[in-house]
Amino acid sequence: MKNAQCKKCLNNFYEKEIYTIQQFQYRKEPPYKWSVEYFKKLGITEWDSFCEKCISDHSKVSEREWKDLKI
Ligand SMILES: [Zn+2]
After folding, report:
1. How close is the Cα of 53 to the center of ligand 1, in Å?
2. Number of domains the chain is built from
3. Ligand 1 center–CA 23 separation, angstroms
4. How far apart, in whole angstroms, are the C-alpha atoms of residue 71 and residue 54?
5. What distance in angstroms lies between residue 1's CA and the mean position of ligand 1's atoms?
6. The pTM is what?
7. pLDDT tens string 7-22
8. Confidence grade of residue 1 (pLDDT, cut at 50, 70, 90)
9. Which of 16, 26, 54, 55 is 20 to 30 Å apart from 38, CA to CA?
């Protein structure tokens, strides 16, 4: 049953197809602590669910913001 909802696109997905920003712990940059603060400002917590496409969008946008900060 598709009972997990993506917070961004609001489509329903299988629970195993859902991601959270906790997966950003594994990227080298930006640091996870920065990511958590960044998403908090957007109203997103570590427990919010996203589909693969939306988590990848969040990943790209946050990475771009991080790079802009360093210039
Ligand atoms: Zn989505």
Report:
1. 6
2. 1
3. 15
4. 26
5. 17
6. 0.91
7. 999 999 999 999 999 9
8. confident
9. 16
Torsion of CA 18, 43, 21, 30, to 10 degrees: 150
Give the Å distance between the CA of 71 and the centre of ligand 1: 30
pLDDT value of position 16: 96
Distance 50 CA to ligand 1 centre (A): 5
Q: Which domain holds residue 62?
A: 4-70
pLDDT in tens, 22-57: 999 999 999 999 999 999 999 999 999 999 999 999
How far does residue 59's CA lie from ligand 1's centre (Å)? 13
